[in-house]
Amino acid sequence: MVNPIFLTLLVVVLALVAFVVEWFPIDITALMVAIVLILLGLVTPEEGISGFGNSATITVMCMFILSSGIARTGLLQVARNFLVQWGGKNPSRQILVMGALVGPMTAFINNTAVVAVFLPIVEDWCKKQRISPSKLLIPLSYATVLGGMITVIGTSTNVLASGISQQLGYGEFSLFQFTTLGIITFLVGLTYLSLVAPRLLPNRRPPASQSLSQDYGLDDYVTELVITPDSNLIGQTLRASELQRRYDIDVLELFRQGSHFPPPLADKVLTAGDILLVRGTREDLIQIRSQRGLDLVSDRHLQADALDEARDEVIDPDLSSSEEKIAEVMILSNSRLSGSTLKELRFRQRYNATVLAIRRGQELIRERMGRVPLRFGDLLLVQGPKDSILGLQTTRELLVLDQRDAETMRPDKAWIALAIMLGVIAAAAFSWMPILVSALVGVVLMILTGCLRPGEIYGAVRWDIIFLLAGLIPLGVAMQKSGATDWLATQLVAAGGQLSDYWILLFFYVVTLLLTEILSNNATVVLMLPVAVEVANKLNLNPFAFMFAVTFAASNSYMTPIGYQTNTMVYGPGGYRFFDFTRVGLPLSVIQAIMTPLLIILLYGLQPV
Questions:
Q1: Model confidence pLDDT, tens digit, residues 194-234
Q2: What span, in angstroms and rounded, lies between the C-alpha atoms of 579 and 202?
Q3: Which end of the chain has fewer surrounding CB within 10 Å, N or C?
């Protein structure tokens, strides 16, 4: 019979490889791990699905819904006025004010929800101040990560660590279990972001005083074509002509004798003299001219007055008009669009909007976009009727980087949502009921009071995180049952048992920090926290000190844009390069790594409680 310790460690290694090479999405990989553990007999079927009913999983799900209730009522928008009033023009002051706003919020509200709300607010503020958004978006992400460590409900990682602590027999963390440590690390981190980071942050995107079309470099990609009298397109509909299918172009608008026709245009019959505003490459435009009988407007002697009148009335430098609008939208982490191409999604038909360009970090994609698989964090420049752009604000798949219209919010419910959230926090803080119960009650109250509609709770939940937790929790059970945790702890004690207490704590912090940069932070906690506790027991040290070190290291991911979801969210809007995060995040990670274990020893001690 194969040694169960060997089998469990083999599953762990294979899971690590799968997470790193990204054969499948991480939530699917986690579910596969749970299934393999059941098939190998390392956990029972009941233990294999125990993650779905685990208190940590349910609590995280509730916090997503509660955070959505706060965001839907527009409560976070109140902070915009404070930011504009007190932000000033000094970069250090701007980061300090922004961090002081978002940090405390993310102590109680999911940080991805806070970043989703503040992205358009910060971009709009940058536009008014004529500063590059690259100077503020990394600090926005880092401040929410730092703020999330103030309370147990600040991040899903904290909640998961609390659940694992309970499984190991140490009970759940209280709401403010490590708040003192979290506040100190937040203040030190914010000081670094305010004083040092401005010198390291790049100017990747120019100040947003220019139009979006110029920002995306569309001047050479958006052109007016006129249908000549001998064109073979005359009498055909745009759909029948297959222009957009055969060539890498998008027809954005149609002008006919001074009249303007916005999308949808598929059933419009084309006539001689029609002017098409198209997005396309110069190579495709040359082919269209020779094969379909179209000319560039600039190549023909048209009636200048009529053309100028159409241009002045309809087209502005930003490709917007009284009926049309151009906007940036982001692919969200739980979006069903992720992994699919625009062509597969039939994006134009689904949303009645055309994608003009895709921004992925500093990379701009303006050709063959229909064949590019979309990713979480991709920024799409879209054009469409204003009603269609408004409709995008209500979808759970995309985030429109524009100030949310009041009609999509429920401002009259804002203070009710705040009261519910404060009640959830108070009930847990004063031990009137467990965090799980108070969060469930809060979700029900959000629905009963109209802060959220019943159908909205499903879109509020990050299902990828829920399935990730549900799939990983059985792995922790398998490591405990098989003895793999004890074996790893024994090896570590034998190798480093002579080190001082601080260096042992620092070792676990650094290993966890490095793992969380290549794995998900939740996967890292599942793997590292039981081992850390076992080592603490073997060395007769305080297990809570080791749990706090692993928990803080797992969430403090600053060195890559893929290490934490909020980093990925600002990657495209900031136009960053991959190593911009390393340049700004590495010094912060070193500061936190040196400081956090020392603070844990000073605040909580290393002697068993």
A1: 999 999 988 877 665 456 666 666 655 677 778 888 887 88
A2: 11
A3: N
Question: CA-to-CA distance for 209 and 206, rounded, in angstroms?
Answer: 8
Sheet (strand 259-261) strand order = 259-261, 249-256, 275-280, 222-227, 294-296
Q: Are residues 557 and 516 in contact, defined by beta-carbon separation less than 8 angstroms? A: yes
Whether 115 contacts 144, CB under 8 Å: yes
Amino acid at 34: A
Both tokens of residue 584?
Answer: 């700004």
Six-digit token string for 239: 């759909």
CA distance 592 to 411: 39
Buried b (16+ CB within 10 A) or exposed e, 280-312: bbeebbebbeeebbbbebeeeebeeeebeebee
At position 10, the amino acid (one-letter code) is L
The answer to whether the pTM exceeds 0.90 is no
Other Cβ atoms less than 10 A from the Cβ of 128: the count is 12
Q: How far apart are CA 551 and CA 541, in angstroms?
A: 17
Residue 342 pLDDT grade (very low, low, confident, very high; cuts 50, 70, 90): confident
What is the C-alpha separation between 88 and 502, in angstroms, rounded? 42
**Total Cβ atoms within 10 A of residue 169:** 8
Percentage of the chain surpassing pLDDT 90?
24
Instruction: Answer yes or no: are the C-beta atoms of 66 and 424 closer than 8 Å.
Output: yes
pLDDT higher at 96 or 116 = 96
Tokens 């906690």 found at:
525
* C-alpha span between 500 and 14 (Å, rounded): 33
- Which neighbouring-strand residues pair with 383? 326, 354
* DSSP letter assigned to residue 504: H
Q: How far apart are CA 363 and CA 374, in angstroms?
A: 13
The whole-angstrom separation of Cα 174 and Cα 357 is 47
Angle at Cα 124 formed by Cα 82 and Cα 323, nearest 5°?
130
